[in-house]
Amino acid sequence: MRHEICKVKDLPVGSNKIVALEGRSVGVFNVNGEFYALKNSCPHQSAPLCVGRVTGMTLPSAPGEYLYGKEGEVVRCPWHGWEFDILTGKSIYDPHKCLVKTYEVAVETVEEEKSVETYTVKVEEEKVIVYI
Question: How many domains does the chain have?
Answer without folding.
Answer: 1
